[in-house]
Amino acid sequence: FALSLVEERKGVIVCCCSKVTIVDDDYVKISFSEKNYEAVESSGSVELCAKITERCLGTDVDVKISIMSDTALPKLDYKKLKPKENITFHSGQPFDGGISQCKNITLIDDNLYERNQSFTVVLSSYYPSVIIDPQGNSTTVTILDDEELHIDLLNCCDYEIKEGAGSIQICGVITKGTLEVNASIDISTLSETANNMDYSALNFHSLTFISGQSADDESTQCVEIEIYNDDIIEGNEYFNVVLTSYFSSVVAVSGMSSGNVRIVDNDVVKLRPHKKSYDVMENSGVVSVCYEITQGVLGRNITLLATTHDRNAISDLDYAVQSKELTFFSGQSTKAGSNMQCLNISILDDNCYEANEDFRVNFKADESEVVLAQRANTVEIEDDDAISIAFVNTTVFVLESAGVIEICAELTSGCLGSDASVPVDVISGTALSSDYRLISELLFYSGQSSNDSSIGCAKVEIINDNSYERAEYFSVSLSSSDPSIIIETENSSVNITILDDDDVLISLLDHYEALENNGTIKVCAFIKRGEFEVITTVEVFSSDGNASSPEDYAALVLHPLTFREGQSHKHNNMQCVDIPIVNDELYEGNESFEVEIFTNYSSVIVNKSFAFVIIIDDDAVTFRPKQNSYEVIENLLFVEICYEIFNGLLEANIDLQVHTSNGTAISSNDYDAVVSRVLTFTSDVSTECLNITITDDSCYEVDKEFEVISSTVLSSPLLNVLQHSVTVTIKSNNNITLGFRNTSYKFTESDNFHAVCAEITTGCIESDVVVKFTTVNGTALSLEDYNFQSVDITFYSGQSLIQCTNISLVVDDGFERDEYFTAVLTSNSYFVTVNPSHTNITVIDDDVLTFSLEEGNMTVLENVGAIEVCIDVIEGTLGTEIFVTVQTLNGTAKDGYDYGGVLRNITFGPFGIRKCFQIHIFNDTIDENQETFVVELSTSQEGISVETALLTVTIAIDLSDVDTVAMAKASYEVLESDGAVKVCAVLTGGILERNEVVSYILSNITAISPGDYTYMSQEITFVSGQSATADNMQCLIINITNDNVYEEDETFSVRLYSTSEVVNVDQKRDTANISIIDTSIAEIQWTSSTYVATENSNVSVCVELNSPIETDITFNINILKESTAAYTDYEFNKTESLTFYSGENLGQTTCVNISILNDNAVESTEILLISLSSELRSIHFKNATTKLEITQDPDDRVLVFMENSSLNVQLTETVQYPICVRRNKTILERLVVVTLSTEAVSTISGVDYSPLNAVGLILDNETDKICYNITLYYTPNVEEDKMFKVLLTSVDPAVLLNVMNVTTLTVTQIEPHHDGVSYVIIILILVAIFLLLFFCIVIVLIVLQMRRAAPRDRVESKKTQK
């Protein structure tokens, strides 16, 4: 504090002062609140607090805080403190108040897996009275690392290794985190089917990862597990590998920490057939097909699956397989005696001749460890049966035109189990090899037998040489080198006689032509087919057409044409006759008559029996017009045109056709057109004329022309017109008057071009009229004031009666008086009168002066004092003194307050170009908005214009207040489908007394403008009256583009900036990030709703992208359990994934392959249902499911055949007889249908048997044989055998029918047997009946006779009594 002493000395006050300082001798003790602190690395900071432990403060004190590094390092684990970093304790804080002062230390999260780090913080003070408590002068801060280290199995989770490969490497891989220290994880093995005899086990083996390894480079640590090879076939075996960790921060991720190792047994056993092929006689009964082990030892049983494949031997007909499995047992090896297993196959003897047959036995092993050196074994069955054959006929007659004939032999003994061909030899007789050709050998077919009189035929082609000749013959004989085919010598050859049936075809041409003056015409008949071997004569005769005999030609009456021996269609093929022609030297046109041929020979055929003969007239006639041209005055109204015969004579009438053609004269306007006028010339008329009407239009026109064109109606080179076209000229005699439309014109100088017009005032025109237009100087001179002109003005026919021409004026910049010159019209036509012929043209001067203020606007500071404003002449030249007026007009700035107003005239002398004046600006020292006023330039004088008439003067204010703006939020989220987002800025400091504009910049991050967003303006306006405490927000709207493209969420930023000196942008809050949340859907669909594939093939099923994408999308393909196809029908991963990649276009496809397996069974079409799925809700499947139809392999077919090729039935009564169908052993997984039908041979359907019409029989996998009963009807007293066929058919493509698809039934009826005794008894009974009837008749007659005699006896008795 201060002490002062005041003393007054002689009226003067003397002051003296002293400063007293109180030295404080108190102290205060300070220490950290806690001895130790812990903080998680990712927390960002740790707060350290110090407190007063003794006394209190009467003033503020600073305590220095500093850091001493331990294991934690500055800039890596924490931020260093500033050199003078203090903790301030404030006056009044007591030691027992519980009040601490704290300091935050920033922690750095390095995202590294490491040990916990620590550092020490120490307190110190420069004040001697501030004592740092020794017990609390430092504290230890421990940074707890919270980073997790994720370790998974590399390539998890299935591993595979072959047994003999040596070892397998199992690796752990870091999938999350980076190491700053070493870290370990344990790996162990767990046995399943594999045990310690198969691999080297691991028991908590440690994998140590080294500092610096990280997930970024997919760092790994590995261990080798040895795999042992025991050289025994035992199948695949398995064991597991597992990762475990006892550290909470080292995580083995569930699902990726354990794996399965499959040891693939690659030991193999090799098998080979004991023999490559087997030959066996058909009657041997059985054959054994054997396999033997050539390498390997069996540790378990293995089975080979045997399947037979029919070639020309058929299962169950030629052979039968008892078992389809061949089993080798555990312990068998290459050692002799234990290395072989056999399959027994029965050979069936059908007792019919057939070619040697074979079939294949295929062996297959399902285990990959079994290697077959040869999978197929061929078994050949040698036939030991015989047949005998003979020709049916020994003599054959055939026509030469028969073409292909059959020569047949019959099977006289034996039957056929396969097709057989018998060679035939051809022996020439009178017929040579050019007369016939052997096409095929003698063919017999499987199923034929001597019991049914089966035949086989050879085909021979009979060659037709198309010429007459006598009958010829040759012979055909049987031969065979096969000892099983026996040729019967009696019927071993056949003689064939060829009967000739050829004819000859002759014809006339359609017509014959000759010129009249040739004298004759040749008419010929041609041989079109065949050859004459004898002399043959045909007759020719003629008949009139429009040509008459004898005036025009000499007639033919049955004129003979004789063809010689050897003439044919190829050689010397015609005979001709010459007919004389009469030349009359008169034009008459072409004439014709007919010729015709006929013959009585049946072997001579006339194809075209008559023809026209045309006599071509060659006499010419020439026509011409009587004048070469015609002239006619328009008012004469018509003109006569005449034509005459110039050369030649006519016998027939000739028409000359005449028509007109426009030239400069137009029909209907100038004359009446002649469209088609016919002038007829005869033998008596040699000149013809026609009149053409001329139109008088009373209008001026030049001479006009048109043409009259003639031609003959009949187009002939003999008819000529010497001059086809005649010109007719029409002459006009009408007048017109024309002149200038105005006698004077006034034009302004600056318009440059002006139109001066003339018009026709009397008369009309039908032709163009030309007059001369010429300019003549007045006060205006050519080249100085206008451009001299001398041009033609043309009035066009049919257009306007007014025509104009342009006059060009010379433009100058000087003021001058009005001037004139003259234009003159003249014509040199007698029919054109010009009136008025002159016009005066006045040139009005319109030059102007243009003034402008120097600037359009001006900005000055309020304290500038005065400004200078200038006026410029920017157009024209001053030739005299003029003035313009300037004045100031108030805006927001007021005259007398903000500036000194002006209202005055500014004078410019001749050739003056610039004048300036001053305006005073007042500085009012008031904080306000900038203000404006206007300087106006004007003039009232004619010819003077002002270009920049207004100058705006802005008075800028004093810049002392600054406003602050910032973004309202640091980030925004908007859905792409919302269409727009509102982003706001706030006023954080200041009060506005005027509007202020803040600009912003939009920057692409992942979102791109304008593809993802657009904006209309780049300014935000804060308005007057807004402040940081009230109404402080302004917003802008940014349009978001919904591109309907599936993509990742995108981001762009908005940053504020200001160009105003009074507006600052907060740099920490100048930017906002906008995230666009994508709402588009990726649409995917199958390329087809149905796919079709055949067994034993691969098929690609494809999906198509229906919407654009800009990011990768992955989805799954699944097999649905509703599918009818089983897992044995295809190979496909149950959950296959596909990916479309960013940028792929609409219509892009991606596919997955499915292998279709062949189960060698006949089955229905199977359905595999395939669906699409994804966990992403933004993926839409248009059709999520498709179906794959698996159709049967065409080679998987079941062989169906009739059980018997022929049946003989002895019939004594009507019976039901079974017809049976069999099939081979092909597996049937569906029903197959075959049909039976009957075909009559020597029977009557419905009378002798019940007909079958496509009766269906159903076969399944359990049915190898099925029968159907057919009714055979017994008809008494029929001795002939009845024969019909039962046909086996099927429309099922899986059914294979062989040659045994027909059963021939021969039905023999046998009458019931009766012995001789029965016949005697019957006869005796009949005789007894006859005798009994005879006695009865006798008795009846006696009785009747007695009755008639009784009355007579009574009368006689009475007479006797009397």
Structural class: mainly beta
Any idea what the shape is? flat
Q: Mean pLDDT, as a whole number?
A: 84
Order of strands, main sheet, comes to 4-11-9-6-7
Tell me how many strands there are. Answer: 108
Query: Between the first and last Cα atoms, what is the distance in angstroms?
Result: 229 Å
Mind telling me the C-alpha Rg? 66 Å
Largest sheet: 5 strands, mixed
The share of residues in helices is under 10%
The low-confidence parts are none
Summarize, please.
The protein is mostly beta strands and 1362 residues long. It is 3% helix and 50% strand.
3D architecture notes:
- By secondary structure, the chain is mainly beta.
- Helix content is 3%, strand content 50%.
- It contains one helix and 108 strands.
- The strands form 25 sheets. The protein has a five-stranded mixed beta sheet, with no helix packed on it.
- A hairpin with a 2-residue loop joins strand 1 and strand 2.
- The radius of gyration is 66 Å and the shape is flat.
- The N and C termini lie far apart (229 Å).
- The mean pLDDT is 84.
